[in-house]
Specification:
The chain is of the alpha/beta class. It folds into three domains: about 80 residues, NAD(P)-binding Rossmann-like Domain (Rossmann fold, 3-Layer(aba) Sandwich); about 200 residues, UDP-N-acetylmuramoyl-L-alanine:D-glutamate ligase, CATH 3.40.1190; about 140 residues, Protein-Tyrosine Phosphatase, Chain A (Alpha-Beta Complex), CATH 3.90.190. It is about 35% helix and about 20% strand. The strands form three sheets. The chain has a nine-stranded mixed sheet. Strands 15-16-20-17-18-19 form a six-stranded mixed sheet, with helices on both faces. Strands 3-2-1-4-5 form a five-stranded parallel sheet. The longest helix has 17 residues.
Length: about 450
């Protein structure tokens, strides 16, 4: 759909996403203004340095100001409950909607979302496609910004986007070539307001889709699409026809597409539930795009994992340390706990901002698999309440680490998989993960 030159547009959010939209609009010669609810002098200065002459507004949003715009491009961090934008007459869209308008219909677009593992699967799909000789542009939620990919586009480029529920909330008619919602577990309920709203946002990824990849074991992730839509399911069970699953051949478990074995599970870099499911999803997406299985398998065999996602850190005293700081919700944390292979005891470090999640289902998994849990951060008392005597309450990650190390011995595992956002004590899950690694490495040197 062509952009109308006379439309008056506002970019809401002066951070990285808003700046990417601004660059795109400037390249097209589109007039716009920029607003941000924050009043940071640093943010103002940074924005005006890159975009001199652009009219801006910083501070609380007012309806009479917003009403003058025919279209507002809203950054992902701006919640639906933000004062001023709950007016149903406002036309709110995402940067991904702007990207969709600019991306040619004849070029492939792969869209990946899910409560957990979307960054890993996005990375794997991109690497497999590159190994197959495709020109791949990868970005979105994991970075770079989707709109910053457009200047690099060639006639045969494929876009592979990781999309968050925040981005999808304001995206309509994505029309992806292949799309998947890998899984659904309670997350960002404080932002969306309810599990129903969160589910609705995630499933916008399937609007106008060409083909789908479906987690057959997760009913909430399964799309409502026309029966004739090409689909490949995946599940940790014997595979049905045209479904990825697990098949035993000569006492070895293989990832298979129907009766066609693709890869033995023991050849995976980290053969836990996480990696098996991620591999199946990546295989399915790439198979729908016509990639040869030998190319896909070779890429998976060489994969060493993403930072802060089930990454093992060299330890001390025979204790294994695993960094899953990217486990920012209960679903991711529960899967991480189930994926740990150990003959010893499992100590979990959890806590932070729980984002309004129901902790009950998570607690059942934790009680079954973990020997003890050290809970820290803003919502530590919430976690302690559902775990009972199996939890020790501390204030910080440092204290949780010290407590776990004092109990653990040779053969045990200490896992950081917080089930929470990090913003109460850290700037991001990455900083939290780096700090955990620093704690391990400092004790190794002691």
């Amino acid at each position: 759909m062509a952009l109308i030159a006379t439309t008056k547009r506002l970019i809401l959010g002066a951070g990285p996403t808003g700046q990417a939209v601004a660059r795109h609009f400037q390249a097209l010669g589109i007039r716009f203004e920029v607003a941000d609810t924050r009043t940071s002098k640093t943010l103002k200065s940074e924005f005006h340095n890159e975009f001199p002459g652009v009219k801006t507004y910083f501070g609380p949003l007012k309806t009479e100001y917003l009403d003058q715009f025919e279209e507002i491009v809203v950054s992902p961090g701006v919640a639906p409950s933000t004062d001023g934008i709950s007016n149903t007459h406002l036309h709110l869209i995402s940067d991904i909607q702007v990207f969709r308008r600019a991306w040619p219909e004849h070029q492939s677009l792969v869209a990946i979302t899910g409560s957990n593992a979307k960054s890993t699967v996005t990375y794997l799909v991109a690497e497999i496609l590159k190994a197959d000789g495709r020109d791949v542009l990868v970005g979105g939620n994991l970075g770079p910004q989707a709109l910053d990919l457009l200047p690099q586009r060639k006639d045969k480029s494929i876009a592979v986007l990781e999309l968050s529920s925040f981005q999808l909330e304001r995206t309509r008619g994505l029309r992806a070539t292949v799309a998947t919602c890998l899984n659904m577990s309670p997350d960002h309920l404080d932002w969306h307001g309810s599990m129903i709203a969160y589910h609705r946002a995630k499933h916008r990824i399937f609007e106008g889709v060409g083909a789908v990849v479906v987690n057959a074991e997760d009913p909430l992730s399964q799309p409502l699409v026309p029966d004739q839509t090409p689909a490949i399911n995946f599940a940790l069970q014997n595979p049905d026809f045209y479904q990825f699953g697990l098949m035993v051949i000569n006492d070895t478990t293989w990832i298979s597409l129907g009766a066609d074995p693709w890869m033995p599970v023991n050849a995976l870099p980290n053969p836990g539930r996480h990696m098996i499911q991620n591999t199946m999803a990546a295989f399915a997406i790439c198979h729908l795009l016509g990639v040869n299985k030998r190319v896909a398998v070779k890429v998976i065999e060489a994969f060493q994992g993403l930072p802060h996602r089930m990454t093992e850190i060299p330890g001390f005293r025979g204790i294994r340390f695993i960094n899953d700081s990217k486990g920012t919700n209960t679903g991711a944390s529960g899967t991480a706990v189930r994926s740990v292979c150990t003959n010893g005891r499992l100590f979990l470090l959890a806590g932070g901002e729980s984002k309004g999640a129901d902790l009950g289902p998570w607690a059942k998994v934790i009680k079954e698999y973990c020997y003890h849990v050290f809970v820290f951060g803003k919502d530590r008392e919430r976690f302690a309440a559902v775990l009972g005597p199996q939890a020790t309450v501390v204030e910080t990650l440092d204290h949780a680490f010290e407590g776990a190390v004092s109990y653990a011995s040779d053969g045990d595992v200490i896992l950081l998989s917080p089930a929470c956002a990090s913003f109460d004590q850290f700037s991001s899950y990455k900083e939290r993960g780096h700090h955990f690694r620093h704690l391990v490495e400092t004790n190794c040197e002691a």
